[in-house]
Amino acid sequence: MIVRGQTAGPAPSTGPAPTGATAPAAPQRKGNFETEFKMKSGTYLGFGQVNLGMGEIGFKVVVFCQNKEKKNGRLEFRIDHPKGKKSRRIGTLKIPFTGDTTYALKLVGNPKYSYGIHDLYLVAKGNPFSITSITFVQDY
Fold it and tell me: Of 36, 75, 120, 121, which cross-links 82 as Cys (Cβ 3.0–4.6 Å)?
C-alpha cells in the first residue's frame, strides 16, 4: 500500500505514567480505529496492481468525519496515477458529516476505464475525514 501525506499518531505508552503526571482524557469514539487513516485534501492511499476485472468491482469505505461546518469532503477513486494527465477518475464518493459514528459508503466503479489491472489511488479532496476500513466488493 502506498500512503502519502499521512501523519503518525503518538506511540502508545508501554510503561506506567510518571508520578504526578496526568494526561487529558481523549474523546471516546465508537468503533475500532486501529487502522484509521486521517485524510486531508491532497493525501492519498494507493494500492498497486489491483485487478478490477471487467469493471464489476465496487468499493465499500467506512468513514468518520466530525467537521460539520464544511460539507465538501470527497474521496476520488483514480487509476494509474493519483494526479495529473495520466490519472483517470473512476468515481467520487461524497463524505458526509458523521458525528460520533462511522458510515459505510459504497461506490461502484466506472466500467468505461476500470477494466483489467491498475494501480488504484483513493485521493482526498476538501474537508478532512478519516478512513477506518476499505473493502473491495463484487458488484454484479
Answer: 121
Per the listing, cell 502519502 goes with 4
Kindly report the length of the chain: 140
Element (H, E) at 37: strand 37-39
Lookup: cell for 31: 468503533
Q: Give Rg (Cα) of the chain.
A: 17
Cell 463484487: give the residue: 138
C-alpha cell at 49: 496492481
pTM of the model: 0.71
Is 122 within 8 Å of 75 (Cβ atoms)?
A: yes
Tell me the pLDDT tens digit for each residue of 48-66: 998 887 766 788 888 888 7
Q: Where are the alpha helices (DSSP H) in 5-106?
A: none
User: Which cell numbers hold the place of 111?
Assistant: 466500467
